[in-house]
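Good morning C.,

I know you're traveling, so I'll keep this short. The sequence:
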Amino acid sequence: MYKIVVSFVTISLGLLALTGCHATFQGTTVSRDGNGNGPTPAPGQAQTTSVSPSSATAGSAGLALTVTGLNFLPSTSVLWDDGTILATTYVSSTVLKAQVPASLLYRPMTVSIIPSPFQTFNFGTTFTVTTQALVGNSSFSVSKVAVAANDMEWNPVSGQIYLSVAVNDPLHPNSITTLNPMGPALGASVSTGTEPARLAVSSDGNFLYAGLNSQGSLRRYTLPTLRSDLDIPLGTNPAGLYYAIDLKAEPGNPRSVAVTRGVLNHSPIEIGGVVVYDDSVARPQSVAGVEFIGGSYTGPGPIDSLVWNPNGLSLYGIDGADGNNIYFLPVTAAGVQLQSKLPAGTDYFGSHLHSDSTTGNLYTDSGKVIDPATTVIVGSFPFHAILSGFNGQPIMVPDGSLNIAYFLGQTIDTPTAGSYALEAFDLSHFTFLGGIPITGISGTPVKMVRWGSNGLAILTRERDGTTAAGDGVYLVSGGFVTSPAP
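The tokens, ready to paste straight into the viewer:
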């Protein structure tokens, strides 16, 4: 079931033809589309015209809501966002009192307030949970290194960030280039001959794996010399060459790498499945890809992003395009297989998974926490200022050594270009520690990594991918990273 919330001045009546959808109209019915047209309430239908108060701050205590409207009955209840029934007291046919518990005020959002019963067209108003003020350690600095990169990886052994530099970079196109974040300054660079994409650093810091999409292969480099060591063909499909949608080096086994394979310009792209390679030899057991055959999808599901269990005995995958499923993939010397998957249900997992060896948990960009041993969601991070959900798509990185989870996303109150919030949470207890504004960011943040003792690196790309004007790596360092509280 879909829920459509629209304002009267911008409503397109074509939207109302969607079968099975429910619309919550806000404001007066006289001006419901700016011209007095559109759906009208049924005779005697209850309507909400205003609420007081009309807003509260995220994280605040529960509150009493006065709801004003028309045609209320003693049996009428107030519905929060078309779903939750609030404890309601009938005052008159035009006034209801409702109790909003603190559990519904946990994060910034705008919700619809309508009277029961829920109908095909519901006439209500909105209530806004506003952003808490960003309060955090003000000791930090932000610098930018201009570079058009497709991916980045931090190597704690060499103290370098490795970049797969795109074809449109003006200085180091089609290369693997190092970045010293302490400078900050770009360093050694080696040409790849074609545009490099995804990267992975081995756990011992001695190898770098790079996906070469147009060649359908991976290339392994020795570190820190960046000497080409091995090419790993990923195979073919009648639809074309396989490429690495994502790749991750196996913990404790630097010569092995897991790859989720796809075919460019094919729908769905994830038709190559998940394979583990030892040097250039694929292990015999693999997870099948997904295909669209005869009007339906075959295979376990699209896997776009991978992460290893730090013990090297399991992989975890996610459907990065839609954030709908997490896949649990045990690994042996024979290869990898699908054990189970966790559907997102009404949640959204985001585009990437992250694991932490200290807590043993999995973390999603959307703020969900999963125990891989039980395949159960065990918690979530209460974003204070970050726009979350499918449209927000924040990025995150956990650091078990500091017991901190970092999230970067557009601010919910003013989701404008360049305006972001960096929030830090207790990694184990999911409580808010502190947050700071990060402004002036060009491009779209696509990845964040921890570097050094007190640094974060944020990779940005232009949305259309055709220009390098806004591309870069933003380096955040200082006291906030290690001690986020003000």
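Safe travels,
E.
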